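Retro notes (design track)

What went well: tokenization of the new backbones is finally stable.
What didn't: we kept losing track of which sequence belonged to which structure.
Fix going forward: every design gets posted as structure first, then sequence, in one message. First example under the new rule, 346 residues:
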């Protein structure tokens, strides 16, 4: 038995004992969890009990953005040893699947992902995980930063799919946690500037702390006109849609330059209108992002080099005993909160 933050059903969270696997098998490691970030998806399961086809039908442990320390290694594990600080990829594919063999393990239909029903998450003191999806943290990267690798990997995947060239101008629609991380990843990937658009000024103020971010409050400023002005009527090389608002899709083609790319990161509730003729006339390239693959080492390398610092995005850290309070704070969705974290162990 282990103590864990359990979502019993929609709107009912409890910190209680639950039976979880605690013995590593071959090629697995056991990790003492230190820090877990709260993700929008965790909060959505709490408030709505489902995300699309994934429905919480029995009690489920929440949390998937985690870092900790290896405390036991299973047979055959070579690249990790006891005492090493690590962070983990929450998605584990079937290594034999066709998607995995193609290197597209994030879109393996058989992937299991922490805190996605019916798979338990990691807001609990120990977890057993495949060593292949467990990554060593350099000394200069803290546990708190290690737990930021997961959401930042989404930004890395978006920057990768955009095929950024040095000096590109990006537009990022939405300054939520993912929008901000996409902007930071795009800048790290070579963009000269990231024009970040949102309605909420506090979110834009946080984004604007990063060099290269050009904040635009779309409550006051017409974004299409502003991007035209900033790019001498040419348009942005890449537009990252991170708001998930279907209305955002009405303007993406006015924002992108001829031959530019539109990268869909946010998930709209339903189908969105897209002017295919306008897209075709510009030969706009449309890319999609579902989680990430092969991004953890690169993200960790950027943190370790000091070129990417996500510490300013950690708004508050709660002790494990106050996990329910931490989630209720996340439900408030304060515009000044980017990432809330829970410290499971000292
Ligand atoms: Zn997440």
């Amino acid at each position: 038995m282990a103590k864990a933050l359990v979502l019993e059903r929609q709107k009912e969270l409890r910190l209680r004992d639950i039976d979880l696997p605690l013995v590593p098998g071959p090629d697995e490691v056991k990790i003492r969890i230190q820090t877990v970030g709260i993700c929008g998806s965790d909060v959505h399961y709490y408030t709505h009990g489902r995300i699309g086809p994934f429905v919480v039908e029995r009690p489920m442990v929440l949390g998937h953005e985690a870092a900790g320390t290896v405390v036991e290694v299973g047979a055959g594990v070579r690249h990790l040893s006891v005492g090493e600080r690590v962070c983990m990829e929450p998605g584990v594919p079937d290594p034999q699947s066709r998607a995995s063999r193609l290197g597209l393990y994030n879109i393996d239909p058989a992937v299991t992902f922490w805190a996605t029903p019916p798979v338990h998450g990691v807001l609990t003191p120990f977890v057993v995980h495949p060593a292949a999806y467990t990554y060593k943290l350099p000394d200069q990267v803290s546990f708190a930063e290690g737990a930021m690798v997961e959401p930042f990997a989404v930004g890395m995947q978006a920057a990768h799919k955009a095929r950024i060239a040095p000096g590109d101008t990006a537009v990022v629609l939405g300054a939520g946690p993912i929008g901000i991380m996409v902007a930071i990843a795009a800048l790290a990937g070579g963009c000269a500037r990231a024009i970040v658009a949102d309605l909420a000024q506090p979110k834009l103020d946080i984004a604007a702390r990063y060099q290269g971010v050009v904040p635009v409050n779309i409550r006051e400023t017409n974004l299409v006109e502003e991007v035209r002005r900033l790019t001498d009527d040419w348009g942005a090389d890449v537009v990252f849609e991170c708001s998930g608002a279907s209305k955002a899709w009405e303007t993406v083609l006015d924002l992108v330059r001829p031959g530019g790319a539109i990268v869909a990161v946010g998930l709209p509730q339903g189908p969105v209108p897209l002017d295919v003729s306008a897209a075709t006339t510009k030969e706009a390239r449309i890319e999609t992002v579902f989680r990430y693959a092969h991004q953890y080492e690169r993200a960790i390398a950027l943190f370790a080099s000091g070129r990417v610092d996500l510490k300013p995005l950690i708004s508050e850290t709660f002790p494990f005993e106050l996990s329910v309070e931490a989630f209720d704070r996340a439900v408030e969705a304060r515009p000044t909160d980017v990432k809330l974290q829970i410290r499971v162990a000292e």
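Added context from the reviewer: The chain has a mean pLDDT of 97.
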